[in-house]
Batch of 2 targets.
Target 1
Amino acid sequence: MLKGTPKGIFLCHQNDLLLTFTLIPLVSNSAYHTVVALLFSNLSLSPNNSYLYLYHQHHHPHYHYYQQHHYYHYYHHPHQYHHFYHHQHRYHLYYHHQYLFSLLPPSHPTLPSLPPSQPQPSSPATLTTIRGHHVAQLDPLGILEADLDCFVPSDLITTIDKLGFYGLDESDLDKTFRLPFTTFIGGGDTTLPLREIIRRLETSYCGHVGVEFMFINSVEQCQWIRGKFEPPGAMHFTSAEKRTLLARLVRSTRFEDFLARKWSSEKRFGLEGCEVLIPALKMIIDSSSAAGIDSIIMGMPHRGRLNVLANVIRKELNQIFCQFDPKLEAADEGSGDVKYHLGMYHERINRETDKTLTLSLMANPSHLEAVDPVVQGKAKAEQFYRGDSQGKKVMSILIHGDAAFAGQGVVYETFHLSELPSYTTHGTIHVVVNNQIGFTTDPRVARSSPYPTDVARVVNAPIFHVNADDPEAVMHVCRVAAEWRSTFNKDVVIDLVSYRRFGHNEMDEPMFTQPLMYKQIRRQEDVLKKYSDKLISEGVVTLQEFEEEVAKYDKICEEAYTSSKDEKISHIRHWLDSPWPDFFTAEGEPKSMSCPPTGLEEGVLQHIGLTASSVPLEGFNLHPGVSRILRGRSELVKARQMDWALGEYMAFGSLLQEGVHVRLSGQDVERGTFSHRHHVLHDQEVDRRFCVPMNHLWSDQAPYTVCNSSLSEYGVLGFELGFAMASPNALVLWEAQFGDFHNTAQCIIDQFISPGQAKWVRNNGIVLLLPHGMEGMGPEHSSARPERFLQMSKDDPDRFPEFRGDFEVHQLFDCNWVVVLLPFRKPVRIHLISKPLSNARINPYPPVHYSTPWVGPGTRFKRLIPNEGPASENPQQVKRVIFCTGKVYYELARERKVLNLEGEVALIRLEQISPFPFDLVRSEVERYSNAELVWCQEEHKNMGYYDYVRPRFLTVVANQKPIWYVGRDPAAAPATGNKATHLNELRRFMDTAFNLGVFQGRKF
Ligand SMILES: Cc1ncc(C[n+]2csc(CCOP(=O)(O)OP(=O)(O)O)c2C)c(N)n1
Ligand SMILES: [Mg+2]
């Protein structure tokens, strides 16, 4: 015990109405410094209890100054009092701790009473600090500090035997004090002896639960939490509840034991050391179901995942066990995934509440925490489609590892979505399996924050740290967390402070790196043994009943094991987390393989165009600049033309008419980064008066959601991917501010979007809008790195495909492109080739006339646009065919015209690059059989499309002809920062493109 440390202190705080005092006496026991925190509010304001004393640890010269001066002033000058306390609190109490306030009985003679007329000081709300969690007994091993700090804040420390040293004696402990109304420790009592106060507070705040909530800026919420932890008997459980808890613990523990026995050398990332996770989740689910929740979407990492699938989601055990069979064959197309990544969807009756409940655990990649925003997006979408605007029916639970929770930035990004109107899921319950280790790394070198959970403080989520070896304490915090979520619809964190009994996986040797910790772990009795002993000694169960429960579950496992041997084939689709039952056939196949035309009646186009160029609300004060834009649109509509922004309007609007929900999310998407979109109009006179014309198209249209996101890519793209998972009947688009910013969301692209179907047989129609264009804007803001996406496409460059009538749609099914009308969903990446802002100045795109060949009824997306002009009339005379894509076409067409080469050079545009339109390219190549073939791009040679298209062109011509490259030279940066260099590069490759002799005599 620290020498000379104080016995007790009162911390002073102010909130709106009250001055509050927290008494923090400390008591020692053999193993811990423990702290007790008590809030005595109103203490100084009532004439009956204005008994404050300053105590000091050492004789400090300022002692009398503070005692006499400030106290004295307090009675006469409330403002100085305020200042004084603020000063004390911040400085002396926290850092020097020489000065202590203590409480004396009302009869103490030395202090004057506070005059009844004393005005109450008021100030911005601050709340009582309760720091008991710093010394609560959270580590089941008893060797680590959950807050990484064995230093117990000295302002909190005292020992009972030091009472005299601080001016108190043992007799003070038995003096009775009136309790303030803000505390619940009294139960029915309004006064208690100090000894009892200390005991009760110790029970609430310094036992196996550490509650962090002092940072919450709501008196109501803080009081609510106190009300859950302070009343005597708050943690009381009935015998029936205890038996249920024991039975759940049996399942959790014996499941891992069973796997360990049967497959001792298989990786499973066992839960041993935190078996309480299973009853914890079940308690959260039961309590949430009781509060009205009927759909829960969960995300979690590897640790204990199989156990959660088995005992929470209730995946059939034989289906889990057969995954361990090395001879099990895969029935589905695709490459599949390891068993501890698979997801699951299950509808069942909750036994505790008798209500129907749907549970889904999202499949996820190894990349820790990447699934967090995906879960949130899916939960949001379910809430949206069900009209659950308050999150009373659908909720999400996220489970985290301690190291990943602290280390991964996407956790922070996800928290920052939690309160945003278009992204909130109205409260997520986070559960941290805090085994105090990450692989081989100790927490003290893995994080800089005291707890792994501190990230949650940014959203004022209460954090409940709990010793995972005390299952009843865990159940209590889980119940409180669920009630918190259903009461306040805000995030909450449960930190299960536990340990990891074995290595990171079952093959790892933890003694290499954590020898002492693991010596202790070997001595550690498992929680099931401890808890069953406790219940047996309490007489809640008999030893025989307990053993029967264990035997019963072991038998279930054995039987499932036997039947798992009959499973010869694994169906990944049985592990689907987001089934779309009516969308596919019963076998999970598309109902047809057809791609209907996407053209529209002119009347529809006109209608949408008019809405896009008007304000449907009366008396709306528009900005003159926006008025101009809308007038420009209206001119185009009159001329039956559309530019990029109108084209987008037409596409979205027509889908809305057909009942397809459209959601566009990303940074500044409402106006549009390039100020071209203006989907949300702002009244210039009335604060927060908006108008979204797209939602005024038709009375029975589907809703349009357009939302500016937080400044995140990883989190927001993950969220939208999850949103797109909930329903196939939606177009969900994420737009990057500039295409290159998608690189901070690369994990979502690489781990979910590209391989999602191959790993998890999961369709998804997410659309990425990535502004791209080499316009001299510098190394960033130029390239959306199309080469990266093309590299993910799996069409074989070397195999010329067979052509059937449905070749086009089959290609789309096999590779990655999407049209919302397709009978399946594929992620798609669209590069907006050229930014509409620059269109205004150097518009490479003339507005498109919406006459039939392009957008009218019966028309469809053109994968390839053949040459337009003289070259196609006399193809045999053509000397060079330049294939290209995007904006560079317009530069080439202009140059060709200037050079008068329109008869000799054909320009062909690939609108769909992947899957490669082998059929159309072949017929163009055959048409211009005398011409040499060129691929022209404005990107550098090692970027853009060249590496993707080259081998495919060679396959088309059976390697009989070269496909020459024209474009920028290879480079390390995507674009130059120098405008002159940019223009020189452009000039140089334009010259090459039309120098018809340049490749003569060259070998390929
Ligand atoms: C983003 C990411 N980085 C690194 C890894 C490799 N990795 C797998 S588990 C692990 C440790 C995780 O520790 P923790 O989050 O505490 O979970 P625990 O295994 O202890 O349950 C690491 C580093 C990963 N899977 N994902
Ligand atoms: Mg860990």
Target 2
Amino acid sequence: METTSEKKTTATQKLEEHNKRFKQRVEKVTEGVYSAIGYGLANSILICTDEGNIIIDTTESLSAAEKIKEEFDKISPKKTAAIIYTHGHTDHIRGASVFMDEDTEVYAHSKTKEFFNEQFNMLEPILTHRGARQFGIKVPRKYIPSSGLGPFLHMDRRKPEIIFPTKEFDNHLDIEIGGVHLQLVSAPGETDDHIYVWMPEKEIVFSADNYYPCFPNLYTIRGTTPRPVLGWINSLDKIRALNASIMVPSHAEPIYTKERVYELLTMYRDAIQYVHDGVIRGMNEGKTPDELVDDIQLPPKLTAYAELQELYGSIAQAIRAIFDGYVGWFDGNATNLSQLPNKDRAEKYIELAGGFDQVMTAISQAIYTEEYQWAAELSDLLLTVCPDNVEITNTKAEALFQLGLETANANNRSYYISQALELKGEIQLPERTKEIQYAFAKKMDIEQFFLKMKIILHPMKSSDTEVTINLYLNDQEQWYQLHIRRGVLEVQTNRAKNCDLEITTTADEWKQIILSIKDLSSSLDENLLEINGQPSTLEKVIHLFQV
Ligand SMILES: [Zn+2]
């Protein structure tokens, strides 16, 4: 059996070796087509045309995008005619403002905007923090030799403006810019808004994240709705049927020759199908997710591919996600229909083990024998009854840190180490300021903003409040009625007959007031908001929202 120090060396070496794929460079794919690799987590791709440049994906940060633009400008200093987002993930869209010129069109699937709203609005708090852990963005680089999909997710201090698409489509869209003809085609995979781009004249497919050289992330630990696994296979089959001569993915190196492209796509779709079908088969036999995780491993003909190492996606996590996606959280065992409250269970286990001190000794023993998962699980048991105990917190941190070092899966490794360093107080997760929230909120449709308002309404503070507000947004010429009652906010798109307040303002002014970017008094002084009723009532309502 491999010792812990051997495991650590193997994990680190695998990631270091894998990271060579992302050596920073602008690779000339063919005349007029270039891929910038290793500047950001994702690639940015340049297609030169007589009427300006086409940029496929823009990386995650302004600093990465600026370096790429400098290189692209040496190849073709023309303006950017079009940006194409292959999907709405951060590592593909946040560098966009660097490439934008006055008339640049931004192409994306029609679901990209919806995806932005979900990611940056309602779920922004959880996804920001879990995403930061998954990519280890606060973790010293020496602990993370590769992020699996690229060298590292660079999040600079400058917060890029999110550029929304200007041209959207559902199934496919043919475009022609400066004599270059491209087909943009819906291809769900990591996300529902995912597309690939086909360049028929040169037989090049830009496959985005439908293929990258790691086992695919059929689930992501930062959190996702069930990923469309069958849709992903179908998308790979569509790409395979193109019989492309070159495939340029949005992560890692381009693939050359028809045979190699076909082989890798076939291998990839087979790996996904093998896991998917295995889960369904086992589920139908009555197996639980835990049992399926023990059962399902890829066959040797697939594990032989370096491109299927679990350095990014994880088969065990994919199995749980596929199970959950089809039948939900219940594993089928009646014991788990309703469980003992966490604290009761922990107390009973601790008593059974001979008391708190006995468990403490067992944790120290587990650390000594390098059984770090067991040490972490026992620490959680004690932390359930003594959540503020510093000694146990530090022991748990040590166990997670060691688990991280022996893990080759970049997402898990970063998550372990990030959480360990947070527990030790050595790093802090990114701050979420009201200014950052407003930067996105100002671009949101007002309906999306109402959704945010519902979530940030303080349920206890508002539990006895009963108020009806008619809100007229004069820039949109639309009435809304907002009811706050019993700790919930309901919004309807008309004017209530009876109300406590009537307010006239613009959508942007309203967003600024609710997010405490601006005081109500300044909006009133500047005549940007009118109230029919008591301003103090509105003041009280504003205080019910917690940014
Ligand atoms: Zn990506």
